[in-house]
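Incident log, structure service

09:12 report received: a user says their structure output differs between two submissions of the same chain.
09:20 pulled the input from the user's history:
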Amino acid sequence: MSYQEKEVGSQIYFVFALALLLVYLVLAGQYESWYAPISVILAVPLSLLGPMLVLTALRIENNLYTQIGTILLIALSAKNAILIVEVALEHHIRDGKPVLESAIDAARARFRPILMTSFAFILGVLPLVIATGAGANARKSIGITVFSGMIASTCLAVLFVPAFFVVVQNFENWRKAKKGKAAGPQAAQQAPGTAH
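09:34 re-ran on a clean worker, output below:
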């Protein structure tokens, strides 16, 4: 590994954190909520289980190319989670459905699109996984990382993202209800003062 690769490798944690922060801020603006994006962000570690297990089993070192693949997985795993959370929020906020029912309906509605797009991508990176010839190691490192990460993300996201949504949304609803109760007595106390 060259000096430049080692130098870049030491900055991967900063880049990884920055990528997560950018995804969170964009989603917070889109959903107009500080809580809803947490359901999406929690899906990212699920996608990292695949590369961790496969790279360890194949004894592939954590090099610059696997790190690039890992950062790519942030966007790809977030995409699957966004598909579920978006529909769940619509059902819960717009249609007034309970949180659990919204999450289950969203997972059912988005199950097929997630499988179709994810497996199309997985098959698309398969040539990188089985690459041979000059530069094959670099292509294999990125390919195996993304390939295994997307399989893990696809299989686990459909199961866990609805659960994350239920927990986070129930917490947000509890916070709103708590604020509403706190605002009620304050308004009642201010009302006599305004009458004078």
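09:41 both user submissions now match this output. Likely a transient worker issue. Closing.
09:42 reviewer note: The chain has seven helices and no strands. The CA atoms of residues 137 and 177 lie 55 Å apart.
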